[in-house]
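Checked the freezer inventory, then went back to the computational side. Two predictions to log before the end of the day. The first one is the construct we discussed on Monday; recording sequence and C-alpha cells without edits.
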Amino acid sequence: MSVFESAVTISKSADIVYAFLADMNNHRQLMPDSITDWESTVDVASFNVQNITKLSLKIEERVAYTLIGIVPAEKPPFNLDLKWELNSAGNATEVNFVITADLNIMMKMLASGPLKKLAEEETANLVRLLS
C-alpha cells in the first residue's frame, strides 16, 4: 500500500471543519481543475479525472468532529481509501488528509506524483475556503 498525506491547521473549530467535509457536495471545491463532470449528493460524488479515469466515491464512515472515511462507490482502477482526520487544537483544527492506494509498480510510477499533489491541493484548498 502506498500512503500519501498532507496536514494543515485551520483557524476554525472542528465542528465547522467536520460539517464541511461530511458533505460530499462540498468536496468539489477542494478538487483540482482537472476534475470534470462532477455530480454529488451528501454521501456520494462521481467525477472524471481528466484523461485518466472516472471515479465514484462515497462516505463510508463519519465520526463526529474527528474522522471522515471515504471509499470507492464503484470499482476503481486500483483500491484506495481516503481519510480526513481532525484534531481539535483550541480555536483551531489540525487536519490530516490521508490517501491510501494499492498500487502495483507500474501504477505507482504513474500515480504517485498526482496522488501526492492531490492530497496537498485538497488541504490547501480547504485552508483557503475555511480561513
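The second is the one RB wanted added to the comparison set:
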Amino acid sequence: MIRVVLAEDQGMVLGAFAALLDLQPDIEVVAAVSDGDAALTAVTEHRPDVLLTDIEMPGRSGLDVAAELRRRDDPTRVLIVTTFARGGYLRRAMDAGVLGYVLKDAPIAQLADALREVHAGHRVIAPELAVAAWDSADPLTDRERELLREVLDGASNTDIAHRLHLAEGTVRNYLSTAMAKLNARNRTEAATTARDHGWL
C-alpha cells in the first residue's frame, strides 16, 4: 500500500484527488491538507511514502516544502501536480529533489501511475514540462529572486531594505540588474515576468 499525503489549497480539487485516489487498490490517502506548513506537519506526523503537492499554496509553496524535506533528509518522495507548465518551476523542483511533476489536467489513472512510479524511485515528468524547462533558463541570482518576491508582495524599496537588512541603494542596484536581465521597464514588470516564468 502506497501511503500518500495530499497538499492542495483548492478544496474541490483536494476532495476530488482524495476520493479518486482512495479508489485505487494500492493507494491510501493518510492526510489531506490545504497549505504548505500543514503539509510539512502531516509528513512529519504520518511518514507517508509520497507527498502529492501543488506548487502555489498559502504559507510555504510545494517547492519550499520539497526543499525543506530534502534538507531534513526525509525519505518521503515528492510528486508535484500543478496547472503551471512553467520551465522555471520544473528546474526548481528538480533542484529540490522532486521525483515527479505532472499537470492537473492529466487523467486520474495517469496521476495514479505517476504516484506508483515516484514511489518506486523513478522520475516522472510531463513531456510538455520537459520542453518548457529546456527552453527556460533562469537568469536571476538567489538575491534577485528574493527581492522580486518582496516586490510581488507589494513592498517598497525602503520596506525591502529594512526587512532584508540591506542599504536602500543596494536594493535599487539588485532590482535594476534584475530588470535589465528580464528586459523589464520597472520592478513590478520584472517581478511579474519572473513569476510567470516560474523563477520565483
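For RB: The longest strand covers residues 27-33. The two ends are 35 Å apart (CA to CA). Let me know if you want it refolded.
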